[in-house]
Amino acid sequence: MKPAEEIAAFKALQARLLPIWAEVHEQPREPHSCLIIPSLSFDQEELSKVAGVPFYEERLMFMLMRLRRPGARVMYVTSQPVEEDVVDYYLQMLVGVPPMHAKRRLTMLCVQDASPRALSEKILERPRVIDRIRHWIGDPNRAYMTCFTTSPLERSLAVQFGIPLNGADPDLLDLGSKSGSREAFRKAGIELPAGTENLQTVAEAVGALDALKTEKPALRRAVVKLNAGFSGEGNALFRYPDPMPQGRELRHAAIRGAFDTLKFTAPDHSKEGFFEKFEEMGGVVEEFLEADEVHSPSVQLRITPAGELRIISTHDQVLGGDSGQAYLGCRFPARLEYRAMITERAHFVGEVLRERGVTGRFAIDFLVYRDRGSEWHCAAIEINLRMGGTTFPYMALDFLTGGSINGVGDYRSRSGIVKYYFATDALVSPAYRGLLPQDFLEIVIHHGLHWSPLTETGVLFHMIGALSQYGKLGVICIGNTAAEADALYQQTRDVLDMETDAARTDRGQLLSMFDDFPHLMD
Q1: In what helix (H) or strand (E) does residue 280 lie, and over which residues does it extend?
Q2: Into which CATH architecture does domain 293-521 fall?
Q3: Contacts of 244 (CB under 8 A, 6+ apart)
Q4: Phi first, then psi: what are they for 178, rounded to 5°?
Q5: Which residues on adjacent β-strands are paired with residue 145?
């Protein structure tokens, strides 16, 4: 099929999404099929810099809770097999549905391909897998596809299967790039860091850094970002030479020389490799905002197939790494003192995206900052036009407790209790390597580290498959207070350290959220 024909076919399929989506929500007992493709369809070279990334396909396993709808059939596709014990772990959390009943309506399909490529690409090159999935779908008028992100690869899959994609049209992906985000923020009329977007060459980046310093002479640092960076891994922190020489040519030469001291979010980035990617995908330069107190909250939104814009949640993100810009985790909800500020601005951006025809889940990252004794200021940083690290923790909370967000952004469960959580993909220690899923789940059961429907508190785990090879695990700690959520995380670490004798390993290698980021305990 020619590209133009495929795009036309895709748009025709998308027109069917609204009636399918409406029927599923209005009549959950009616038969319908949901195909979940957790493909990370990004630049694979950049993605490979994230430790344990082959197991990030497991982050959407909480979506198996869709099986609580009696009429739902779910197929979950992965590159590598998911242990049956891990699947059972998620199914036992279903409320009101016997796990065996849910399991009969679930199909786990693995393409048996561990190569470092996007899962969607692997599926497309396997005609028999496509035929098998198409046969499983059955009636395409009662089925839809959900993906972690959308790209031309997912568009091709939707056309091959003959079902709509519950997500943003790939033609709109530029809105989620670093450059596209800045343009959307300007159109929404909200604050953003000073800088320049749509840069394509190293020379343009040098010129933009020079212009930024001229505009703000007191500026000490700036950020150079790849347009399609993932989880902060495409960012580099730049420090201006001090003093800056006079004259344009000398300034530009000094800036180029300062590239040798760039701090990269991805530890294995080099100056040469970074700027090779910069010239390949383009990027932005913007000021590095500094103040006595700085936080990085985000707002998660959704535009339904009916065109309704919804504010879903707010989070305070935990950032770290050498550049201080790698995503490590999040706390829910964001601080009350600036929650309304970021929510209002996110709504303005959401209206811009809705006008452009965006559907699906997305998030907007902000920086809020203030000096002592002053008011909070806010700057929009980027749009993640896809699911992200804050998507599935909130989704898990919502599925498990059946509550809702109130007017001030607090989440109350069905029983009326306000909920809090701390979530991370990066609980990691060399001592955890070698733990098989069965070993880990035995530890969880023995120490009572699990979700309790009675108290509506506890710990949820994801990326369990990454433990054996990478010593890395994802956790969501849900409490009735922020302090309880923090304590659950600390308890989880302590138990794993004890069970793996991590105290005898180099604890300097252990990523400790509370040791490295003490402000989380404020």
Answers
A1: helix 271-281
A2: 2-Layer Sandwich (3.30)
A3: 213, 251, 254
A4: -65, -40
A5: 35, 165
Where are the extended beta strands (E) located within 215-289?
A: 221-226, 235-239, 263-264, 283-287
Q: Which amino acid is it at 342? A: I
Task: Supply the angle between the helices 152-161 and 3-14 in degrees, to the nearest 10.
Answer: 70
Tokens at residue 333, please?
A: 């909800």
Nearest to 96 by CA among 419, 309, 400, 359: 400
With cut-offs at 50, 70 and 90, classify the pLDDT of residue 325. low
Domain ranges of the chain: 3-166, 194-287, 293-521
Split at pLDDT 50, 70, 90, the class of 509 is very low
Work out the angle at residue 114's Cα, subtended by the Cα atoms of residues 111 and 117, and round it to the nearest 5 degrees.
Answer: 90
| Structure confidence by residue, pLDDT tens digits, 120-148 | 999 999 999 999 999 999 999 999 999 98
Peptide bond connecting 38 to the previous residue in cis, omega within 30 degrees of 0: no
User: What's the confidence (pLDDT) of residue 85?
Assistant: 92
Q: Tell me which residue of 447, 463, 441, 423 sits closest to 498, measured CA to CA.
A: 447
Residue 369, strand partner residues: 294, 377
For the segment(s) 3-166, the CATH number from 2.60.40, 3.30.70, 3.40.50, 3.30.750 is 3.40.50
Element (H, E) at 345: helix 336-355
Cite the DSSP H helix spans in 363-481: 391-401, 437-446, 467-470
Q: What is the CA radius of gyration of the chain?
A: 23
Which residues face 263 on adjacent strands?
237
Q: Which whole number is the average pLDDT over 479-483? A: 95
**What DSSP state is assigned to residue 244?**
P
Q: How far is CA 230 from the centre of its chain?
A: 9
CA distances from 310 to 230, 313, 347, 466, 507 (A): 24, 9, 8, 33, 43
- Quote the CA–CA distance of 509 and 36 in Å, as a whole number: 35
Query: What is this structure's pTM?
Result: 0.88
155, pLDDT greater than 60:
yes
pLDDT at 324: 66
Neighbours of 359 (CB within 10 A): 25
Place of tokens 């995206």: 353
The angle subtended at Cα 109 by Cα 107 and Cα 111, nearest 5°, is 175
Gap between the terminal Cα atoms of the chain: 57
Task: Tell me the C-alpha distance between 161 and 165, whole Å.
Answer: 10
Cα pseudo-dihedral 114, 88, 99, 77, rounded to 10: -10
